[in-house]
Amino acid sequence: MNGAESLVQTLLDGGVEVCFTNPGTSEMHFVAALDEVPGMRCVLCLFEGVVSGAADGYARMAEKPASTLLHLGPGLGNAIANLHNARKGNVGIVNIVGDHATYHVKYDAPLTADIEGLARPVSQWVRTSQSAAELPGDTAEAVAQARRGQIATLILPADASWGNDSPGAVGIPELPEPALADEEDLAAAIAALSLGAKCMVLIGGVHVSRERAAQMDRLAQSCGVRVALDGFMTRVAGGEGMPPLERIPYFAEKAISVFENLEHIILLGCKPPVSFFAYPGISSVLTQEHCQVHRLTGPWDDIDDTLEKLVSAAGAAELVPRSLPCEPPELIPGALSEKSVAAAFAHYLPADAIVVDEAVTSGALCYPFAERARRHDWMMETGGAIGWGIPAAVGAAVACPERKVVCLSGDGSAMYTVQGLWTIAREALDVTVIIFANQRYAILEIEFARTGARGGIPGPNAAQMLHLGNPELDFLQLAGGMGIHATRAETADQFIEQYSKAVTTTGPHLIEVMMLDTRA
Amino acid sequence: MNGAESLVQTLLDGGVEVCFTNPGTSEMHFVAALDEVPGMRCVLCLFEGVVSGAADGYARMAEKPASTLLHLGPGLGNAIANLHNARKGNVGIVNIVGDHATYHVKYDAPLTADIEGLARPVSQWVRTSQSAAELPGDTAEAVAQARRGQIATLILPADASWGNDSPGAVGIPELPEPALADEEDLAAAIAALSLGAKCMVLIGGVHVSRERAAQMDRLAQSCGVRVALDGFMTRVAGGEGMPPLERIPYFAEKAISVFENLEHIILLGCKPPVSFFAYPGISSVLTQEHCQVHRLTGPWDDIDDTLEKLVSAAGAAELVPRSLPCEPPELIPGALSEKSVAAAFAHYLPADAIVVDEAVTSGALCYPFAERARRHDWMMETGGAIGWGIPAAVGAAVACPERKVVCLSGDGSAMYTVQGLWTIAREALDVTVIIFANQRYAILEIEFARTGARGGIPGPNAAQMLHLGNPELDFLQLAGGMGIHATRAETADQFIEQYSKAVTTTGPHLIEVMMLDTRA
C-alpha cells in the first residue's frame, strides 16, 4: 500500500467520505488512489475557492468533515477566502494540499512556495507529512482535529504519496471530551438570569439546532431574559416549530442600540459582540461599558451541558418551548421589490430546505420573512469573505441529497466563485440559485456613506468602483455556459412562477432577479 | 490631507499611475481619495486573482509597477496565486491590502486575519502602516521595492487611511545600483566561453529584450556557445529581427537531454535549471553532475553589464547579430489541429502584438510557429499557477493601449479567473482571447501517465478528475455573460476567418477553438 492509498483508507475509516478536488501533477498518486481504494466520492471543482467553500457547506450539514485536495501553494491560496469563512464559523475541514516531493523543495521550482506559511493563518492545525510511513498517522490526526471543528491542513509531498513503506490505514485518535463551563462563571451567569430583560443569552459560532433553541426559549420564558442569535450564524434551524429568537443586526449603530439596556450578556459559542468593521467615531465594542460579559463556553466546549445547567437552575426544564406556527407570508404580486421577492421565497420554501445565504443587501428580508415558513436550516457567511454562497450550496447539496438547497446570492458575490455553477450542473445537485442582480456592490455604496469618506458621496472614480453595470452581467448566459438552466425575473409574478417551479422540481436551476430599480 | 490622499499622491509622484482594485468597506477612504487626488487610473476587477494578475501583466509591459487594492486577508488570499506568479517572474507590484483600523484588530471581527502572515510567502517586503503620519513614507518605500521587481505588500489599516495627520506625499527613496557580477566568477565564465558548444549561456527570470538577445547571439557567433531561454519567460521579444535562441523544454526528460553534453552553464537572471515537478526515478537537477554552473547575475543584478563584459571578452562587440526574417508560416486550411491553429495564429499575428501565453497543451506549437512572425513580445506563466492568462492580458492591454494583445489560454486555465473577461469588456481593451477548448486538464492526463501512478492509466474516479466535458463549458455564453463578443471555430477555416478579423479590428473578442478531437 503506498502512502496515498493509506491516506484515502484512513479518511474513509474516519468517516470522511467526500473529497472536493482540484488536483495537479504533484497529486496524481492521490488521484490514482481514489480508484485503488474504493468508496470516496470525488467532486471536481474548477476553482479552489469552490473546493473549500463546498467542504465548509458539506460539514455544516453533514456534521462531519469532508476533505479537500489542492495543488501546492497557489491552489491553497485560491482556497484561503473560504477556509477563512469556515474557520470563523468553527467548521472542520481536512484540508489536503499537495506539495513537491520532499527532496525537490530545496530547488525552488516554479511552483515551490511556503505552503505551511500560507496555511497557518487559516488553519488551527498544520502538518507536512514527511514520508509514506508517517502519512496515515498524520491523516488520522487531521481527521480528529477537523471533527472538532478545526481547519486541519495536511501537506502531502508527492513522495509521501508514492512511497511504498506505508503501514496502512490508522484509526482516528480519541478526542478529549468538550470542556465544561467554569463553575464560578456559571454561578455568576445563573445569578444574572434573574435580571430578566437586562440579561441576554447570545449564541453563535455553532449549529443552533431546534433542541438548543428550545433550551434558549425555556430561559426566556422562565426568567424573561432576552435570547438572541449572533448576526452571522454557522447554521441555525428556522421556520415552523422554532421559538422566537432575536438576531443581532449587521450595522454597528443598530447593534449598539439592541444591546443598550443590557447589564449582563451570557455568551454561548461566540465571542463578545463587536462591530463588523471600524468606523470613525463608532465604538468597536457593541455592548455598553458597564455590561458584564459572561463567556461561558467557546464553540468547542460543551454548550449543551451549559444550557442544561442554566435551564435547570432556572427551574425551567419541564417548560414546553414556544413554537412558531407554519404561516408562510402571502405573495405580493406585481412589481419586483425586496419584499415581494422575500415573500415569494418564504411562501414556497419547501419543508426541510437548506438556505445558503449570501444575499448581502437585496435579499436581507428573506430571513425575517421565513420566520414562519416551513421548517428549514439556514447557513450564513461567517467570515465576511464573499464568494462563499454558491460553493457552500454545492457542499450542502452533496451532504443532503434528499433536501432542496436554495442559494441566495448577490450578483457581485456570485462572481467571485461563479465556477461553482459547473459543479452544481455536473453533480446534478438539487440547488436553486437566486441571484439578486442589482448591478452594484450595493453594500459598499451604503458603507461609503457610513464611513463618511468624501462627505459620503462617491466621486466619479469611486462610483466606477462600486457599480457593476457596465457591461451588465448576464447570469442567464453565465449559467448556460456552465450547463445550468436559468431564467430571468423582471416582475414579482415572473419570480413567483419561476421560483415555485424550481423548488417543486428536482435539479439545478438559477433565477436572475433584476433588482436594479427596486430600491426606491 | 488624510492618509489615503497622501498614499495616492505618493504613488502618482512615484510613477504608479494604475490601480487594479477590488475594494471593500475598510478601503472606502482610499476609494474616496481616488477622486480627491486626480490622476490615478482605476480598473475594477470582479475577483482579486484578476487584480494581481493584471498588475503582473501591466508591470511586465510598462516596465514599472502598478498598484493593487485588496480587501483584508480573504481579498489577499484570492490574489495569492497570481502574486506567486509575479514573484517567480521577478515582477514588481505595489500590493495594497486594506485592514481594519489598528485598534479594531484585537477584537477579532469576522474579517480579521493574519494579513502579514498571508502576505509573507508571496512578498519580498511587507509592512503594516500604523498611522496616517507613517503612511506616505511606507508607500514610498513600497514603490521603491516594487520598482526593483519585488512584491511589496503594504497593509493599510482603515484609520491610517482616514487619519488627518499625514505629512503629505513623500518622494521615492533612491535604490542602490544593481550589483555587478563577481570578477572571479566572471573570469571563470569567460574562460568557459572558449569551450564552444559544451558551454551554454542561459537567460531567464527577466525581460529578454532585442538588445539582450543580440548580445547573446554575439556570444553564439563568436564562441560557438549555445544560447538559450529558460522554459517560462517573464517577457521575451520574438519574431522578425530576433536571433535564434534555444528554449528549455518543460518535460524533465527532454530538458535533461538538452543539457546532456554541457560542461559549463552560465546563468543570467535565472537559477540553476531544475525539473518543474518531481517524478519517481527522475533527477530534480537537469544538468549533469559534472556540469559547472556559473551563476553570474541574479534577476536584480546588472545583467546588461555582465553581457557587455562577456561580449567584450569574446571580442564580439562589433559583430552584427543574426536576425530572423519575417516569414510567417503558411496557413494550413481544413480541419482543426494544433498545427493549423498555430500556423494561423502566427500568420496573422500583427506587428508589435503582445502574446500572453497560458495555452498549456493545445497551444504549445504557437511559440515555435511564431519564430518568424512579425515582431512581438511574449509573456509566459512564471510560477506555474494557472489562472494567470486572462488577468495578465488585462494588465498588458492597460499598459500598451496601442498594441494588440493576443491571449492564448486553455479552457481549464481560463476558468480560474474567467471574471477577467468582464474587465476586458468594461475597459474596452484591445484583447483577442483564444480559448483552446479540449474539455480536459490535458496536461494532467499526460502527467498522470508520466508519474506512473496506477500504471499510468486513470481509473474511473481519476478520469472524472481530469475531464471537463460533463457538462461542456460554453465559452460563447460565458463571454457573452460578461459583455464580450465571442465566436466558435470548429474548423481551421473558421478559425482563420475569425482570428484574422479579430486581430485586424480593435477591441475585445474571444474565439473558442474546439480542440476536442484534434490530438490524433
Description:
The structure is a homodimer of 520-residue chains. Chain A has helices spanning 3-13, 28-36, 48-62, 72-88, 115-119, 135-147, 158-162, 183-193, 210-223, 252-258, 303-313, 338-348, 366-369, 389-399, 411-416, 420-426, 442-451, 460-466, 475-481, 492-504; strands spanning 18-21, 41-44, 67-71, 93-99, 125-128, 151-157, 199-203, 207-208, 226-229, 235-238, 246-247, 264-268, 292-297, 353-358, 376-380, 405-410, 431-437, 486-489, 509-514. Chain A contains 20 helices and 19 strands. The first copy, chain A, folds into 3 domains: 3-162, Rossmann fold, CATH 3.40.50; 183-313, TPP-binding domain (Rossmann fold, 3-Layer(aba) Sandwich); 338-514, Rossmann fold, CATH 3.40.50. In chain A, helix 13 links the parallel strand 14 and strand 15. By secondary structure, chain A is an alpha/beta fold. In chain A, the strands form 3 sheets. In chain A, strands 8-10-15-14-16-17-19-18 form an 8-stranded mixed β-sheet, sandwiched between helices. In chain A, 37% of the residues lie in helices and 18% in strands. In chain A, helix 1 packs parallel to helix 6 (135-147), helix 9 packs parallel to helix 11 and helix 14 (389-399) runs parallel beside helix 16 (420-426). At the A-B interface, helix 2, helix 4, helix 5, helix 7 and helix 15 of A face helix 2, helix 4, helix 5, helix 7 and helix 15 of B.
Task: Give the topology.
The structure is a homodimer of 520-residue chains.
Chain A: H1 3-13, E1 18-21, H2 28-36, E2 41-44, H3 48-62, E3 67-71, H4 72-88, E4 93-99, H5 115-119, E5 125-128, H6 135-147, E6 151-157, H7 158-162, H8 183-193, E7 199-203, E8 207-208, H9 210-223, E9 226-229, E10 235-238, E11 246-247, H10 252-258, E12 264-268, E13 292-297, H11 303-313, H12 338-348, E14 353-358, H13 366-369, E15 376-380, H14 389-399, E16 405-410, H15 411-416, H16 420-426, E17 431-437, H17 442-451, H18 460-466, H19 475-481, E18 486-489, H20 492-504, E19 509-514
Parallel strand pairs in A: 1-2, 1-3, 3-4, 4-6, 5-6, 7-9, 7-12, 8-10, 9-11, 12-13, 14-15, 14-16, 16-17, 17-19, 18-19
Antiparallel strand pairs in A: 10-15
